[in-house]
Amino acid sequence: MMKTMRSFRVSGTATGSKKSKQLDEITILANPDTLRRIAIFLIGAAHDMEVNQLDHVHLQDTIKGFSYDNHVDIIVHGEPKKR
Q1: Which InterPro entries does the record associate with it (predicted)?
Q2: SS (H, E, C) 11-66
């Protein structure tokens, strides 16, 4: 079992839409190799955001030949800055 985790939200857009909406769950339909590559992207994004102080990172920027016909962009955002 995973240790406790700070709260987070997931949002997404439907195919062909530009309007984002908050989601309660996500389903990733992929083979094990693709899931590992997504996991590597997420770990790398966390590192880049922490070390390089980036506010977000796109999966599409890391995939050679990215295409919305074959891929879904995953955009990882950092926590909002506290005011």
Answers
A1: Imm32
A2: EEECCCCCCEEEECCCCCCCCHHHHHHHHHHHHHHHHHHHHCCCCEEEHHHCCCCC
Nearest one of 44, 41, 46, 45 to 28, comparing CA atoms: 41
What is the distance, to the nearest Å, from the Cα of residue 59 to the centroid of all Cα atoms in its chain?
Answer: 7
Answer yes or no: is pLDDT of 28 > 80.
Answer: yes
Q: What is the token pair recorded at 40?
A: 């590597």
More confident residue, 83 or 26: 26
Instruction: Say what the pLDDT of residue 6 is.
Output: 87
DSSP-assigned letter for residue 10: E
Tokens representing 6?
Answer: 């700070």
Can you name the residues that pair with 20 across neighbouring β-strands? 13
